[in-house]
Design goal:
By secondary structure, the protein is an all-alpha fold. The chain has 16 helices and no strands. Helix 12 packs antiparallel against helix 13 and helix 12 packs parallel to helix 14.
């Protein structure tokens, strides 16, 4: 692995690690109060949900991932191991998670549940494509996609195209695909350049092709989503909120806490916002207590979690994983450029 002695490289690594830490922190914190209303959260947590603890909605350990970041970790580890993005390989990785999963969204279930019956990779891909819900605008692809932005740092257009492909595996609706494309392009750009939230927002607007996605991105410049409860799980709520927080929140912590405080699909909204905030603010902007909880969170026989999972779904190596993602992505980009 590189030593990252160059200050510019060290800053890039800091932002890459911030992105993955933000994803994982938002997910774990949001999972404590998932599905609760803003009023209920405010009553139980008058200062906001700020600390990772055992329990919550799912009975998880402090720092443990929900389905959002379990899939993000699958994406990250597969990119590192495979060295590039390949749809078939990624589908197989998501199917590795599928029979182990303890929480599954309905849109994900339509594609992966059908694909799991295939006998060969080609059959599984055909089944996923046949059964993926074309009517759903759910956030299940947006919630997992941030590691692609780390891997593709400095290649926003390439990142956007791969994000469209990845979303298409399970969430083929134009709104889902273009939300992923805009989001990942923004992360790719800001990790590589350090130019901040406004530059990330501009890149997202430039990459988005769906009018509905462009509309919510523009709204994010001025306001958060009007309602987090009515259409809980909608990708456009998560996307607008993420960019609103990146543009307006005074810090990563306050952006994640504010997101969770709105209620609804708190883990997913906070994971998505956290990834973008982390790319903007870097590892240095992630509270130390959150970092400690995440790297200390790992499987062991007496952990007490309600949802034990294999080691690949845990966050304990997230700092090293972000570094490996960045390095693998640089090698992939160099190979494509030389070819």
């Amino acid at each position: 692995m590189p030593q990252w002695d160059n200050p510019a490289d060290a800053a890039t690594l800091d932002r890459a690690q911030g992105c993955l830490l933000g994803q994982l922190a938002g997910d774990s914190l949001g999972g404590l109060v998932e599905f609760q209303s803003a009023g209920a959260i405010r009553q139980r947590h008058p200062l906001g949900v700020r600390d990772m603890v055992h329990g919550g909605t799912w009975g998880n350990l402090a720092g443990q991932a929900t389905d959002d970041s379990e899939l993000a970790l699958m994406l990250a580890r597969t990119l590192v191991n495979h060295g590039t993005y390949d749809c078939q390989t990624m589908l197989e990785s998501y199917l590795h998670w599928w029979p182990l999963a303890w929480d599954r969204g309905t849109t994900l279930s339509a594609a992966l549940g059908a694909a799991a019956d295939g006998k060969t990779p080609a059959e599984r891909m055909a089944l996923a494509q046949r059964h993926a819900r074309t009517d759903s605008q759910a956030n299940g692809s947006l919630m997992r996609i941030s590691p692609l932005g780390i891997f593709a740092a400095g290649r926003p257009a390439w990142a956007a195209d791969r994000a469209r492909e990845d979303s298409g595996l399970t969430h083929p609706h134009e709104v889902c695909r273009e939300s992923c494309a805009a989001f990942v392009a923004a992360i790719s750009h800001v990790i590589a350049t350090g130019e901040g939230a406004k530059a990330a927002w501009a890149v997202a607007l430039a990459q988005a092709r769906a009018p509905a996605v462009v509309q919510v991105l523009r709204l994010a410049g001025e306001q958060p989503p009007a309602d987090y409860q009515k259409n809980m799980g909608w990708s456009l709520i998560a996307l607008q909120n993420a960019f609103y927080q990146a543009l307006h929140a005074p810090s990563l912590e306050e952006g994640i806490v504010a997101t969770i405080g709105q209620g609804g699909d708190t883990d997913t909204n906070a994971a998505i916002a956290g990834a973008l905030l982390g790319a903007v603010h870097g590892k240095a902007g992630v509270p130390e207590r959150w970092q400690v909880a995440l790297v200390a969170c790992q499987p062991h026989e007496e952990s007490g979690t309600r949802h034990p999972m294999p080691r690949e779904f845990w966050p304990m190596d997230c700092l090293e994983l972000a570094e490996k993602l960045l390095q693998a992505g640089r090698a992939d980009g160099a190979n494509k450029h030389s070819g």
